[in-house]
# Entry
Amino acid sequence: MKAAVTDQNRSVEISERERPIPGGGQLLISVDASGICGSDLRMVDLSVAGNVLGHEFTGTVVELGSGVNEFAVGDRVCSVPFHTCQQCVYCLSGDPAGCSEAKFVGGHRDGKRVPGSFAEMTVVDAVSSLRVPDSVTRDQAALVEPLSVALKVVERARFQSGDKLLLLGAGPIGLAVLLWARTNGVGRILVSDPVASRRELALRLGASRVVDPTSRDVGEFFAESFGAAPEVVIDCVGRAGMFDQALKLAANDGRVVIAGMHMGNDEFYMREPFLKNLTISFCALYTKAHYEHTLQMLASGQLDPTPMITHRIGLDELPDTLAALRAPNEFGKVLVLST
Ligand SMILES: [Zn+2]
Ligand SMILES: [Zn+2]
# Structure
């Protein structure tokens, strides 16, 4: 099968790989579509050479590992992207990320590669997989992973009626947070992003207002727009300095949710969150329940992330696209269609 394999040059090359074999409790799926995540760019740098990235995917079951009864060949699935022990309390309760043996699909652990979805086929755990309802499109199903990230972020924000939201960053996770905030009834949302096309996309997806943080003071613009500071600030940028900014922008007694990550130390001015009595939370990953709820909302038509997708590419175009994504760019979500 064809796969995009990490090389020594912080990129991937398309090469032939053995078709993977599903182990006990696993499914072999042919990948229908798989999204490029910001973390894939970091992982291309950090990953051991010879790995296959990709963890935001939907596929069709082509082979069952031993002991799998709840799926059949031909089922369309989405999977929480971890290979696990499949039997501990975390695995059985739908929280594969909590399993002490959890290995991230499209990542690596203890030097061992776990091939992901930038390939024609990949292997997933049945216990972490869900059937995709017929009314959910391929493209929607490919977005279940980032939507689940964002669903948990919005849960953490604990919105109350009348809350105003400042959303920093309109990349795919920011836009997915925007969608969930809208379905939760948040009426006044300002989205801040320096890229014009992303601000436009945010307006299409329901932002009340947008601002370019390189040309306006975001706090001032928020107060002008909605009359007071935001009760909730969510950072989906994940760059050094954003944490401090989010703390400064939140209202007294506000909530700050950090949904973006970087790999360094970060400083903040202590007085700010302390005297404002801020509640701060960090939010990573998801459980199977987040996948389940997301699929239900897609199936019922209450959530449609399709406008987030700006590019659909073939596996062969992945190396060039990863390079283009490293520079400032106008990409929204990019889907890789493996076959
Ligand atoms: Zn991701
Ligand atoms: Zn486990």
Observations:
- The first strand starts at residue 2 and ends at 6.
- Residues 37, 39, 55-56, 145-146 surround zinc ion (ligand 1) (CB under 6 Å).
- The mean pLDDT is 95.
